Amino acid sequence: MGITVGNKVVLVGTGAVGSSYVYALMNQGLCDELVLVDVNQEKAKGDAMDLNHGVVYAPSTMTIKYGSYEDCQDAAIVVISAGAAQKPGETRLDLVSKNMKIFESIVGDVMKSGFNGIFLVATNPADILAYATWKFSGLPKERVIGSGTILDSARLRFLLGKEFNTAPTSVHAYIIGEHGDSQFPVWSAANISGVSIASRLTDERREELAVEVRDAAYKIIESKGATFYGIAMGLARITKAILKNEQVALPVGVLLEGEYGHQNVYIGTPAVIDRSGVKNIVELDLDDVEKEKFNRSVDTLKGIQAHYWK
Ligand code: 6V0
């Protein structure tokens, strides 16, 4: 059976990230049909009503409703931003275990509907949960995409745009690796209109920028409790690339099968995205220092994975 056609999107988890994402979808007129699913059905219901009152001012009309997992049957994309938040005293691994259980149940219910589209996973730890979604769903790896370093790369491009008084769209730079503390910028490939960025920044400045990107989430959480607009735009960008068959390279979470000398791990790297999901992975030419950092990031992720899959 071929992949589901059409442009129906189902969002699972209409919290801060999920509701910001669907608001972005609506504003960009990216789909004709949108369904919101949440364990808190009242929240999904309220969001659907509220969003419907904006449709008249959106670029194109669309149907928005709250629903259930059965709605995934003919969905082109199921986006998951559902999950538990870290409680005081809880370790990161406790949180992983909790979200892993939630994902086993969500992905199982989505697949029971007959879903045959593409998963897009945003819940943290995003790389681990993308891997879990791939495992639980049994779908080909091309059809399970993690948000990877889409947000981290956007943060870097924003900062470099400011640094060089240039629009971030003209800054070509990637953060790759774990969506977490072991991520890093690929300075060897970073450029503005083909002009290398690395040679125009001191080592100290490059390190400052890398740290600013890495720690951005902590700063935002300190200020307002959560981060959601940036990731929402990133998820909308990936959604657009899929639904419009764009063949555009975006930094997302993908399963490595030999790329960068690694396999059996979901991690952030540029990949070409089209209507089939991940068309191909773009393997960057890393220098020796970057290779070392990438290996460390893989080790970090595999260390967590090892708790769940032998
Ligand atoms: P939130 O506002 O608490 O929303 C979570 C939503 O999930 C709530 O509406 C819950 O009711 C719902 N939910 C919980 N359990 C279930 C379940 N079993 N089935 C269905 N729905 C459920 O969290 P927020 O929206 O702020 O964050 C969501 C996730 O995104 C978290 O894991 C964040 O860490 C993660 N982020 C990921 C980013 C990325 O770059 N990938 C960036 C920011 C946040």
UniProtKB/TrEMBL annotation:
One of its GO terms (biological process) is lactate metabolic process. It is found in: Cytoplasm. The gene is ldh1. Homotetramer. The modification Phosphotyrosine is found at Y218. Substrate binds at Q86, R92, N124, P125, A126, D127, D152, S153, A154, R155, T227. GO terms for cellular component: cytoplasm. The active site is at H179 (proton acceptor). Gene3D superfamilies: Lactate dehydrogenase/glycoside hydrolase, family 4, C-terminal (3.90.110.10), NAD(P)-binding Rossmann-like Domain (3.40.50.720). Its EC number is 1.1.1.27. CDD domains: HicDH_like (cd05291). It comes from Lentibacillus populi. Pathway: Fermentation; pyruvate fermentation to lactate; (S)-lactate from pyruvate: step 1/1. NAD(+) binds at residues 13-18, 38, 43, 69, 83-84, 99, 105, 122-124, 147. Residues 149-303 form the Lactate/malate dehydrogenase C-terminal domain. Residues 8-146 form the Lactate/malate dehydrogenase N-terminal domain. Catalyzes the conversion of lactate to pyruvate. The keyword Zinc-finger does not apply. The keyword Lipid metabolism does not apply. Belongs to the LDH/MDH superfamily. LDH family. PANTHER family: L-2-HYDROXYCARBOXYLATE DEHYDROGENASE (NAD(P)(+)), L-LACTATE DEHYDROGENASE. GO terms for molecular function: L-lactate dehydrogenase (NAD+) activity. This is L-lactate dehydrogenase. It holds the Pfam family Ldh_1_C. InterPro entries: L-lactate/malate_DH, L-lactate_DH, L-lactate_DH_AS, Lactate/malate_DH_C, Lactate/malate_DH_N, Lactate_DH/Glyco_Ohase_4_C, NAD(P)-bd_dom_sf.
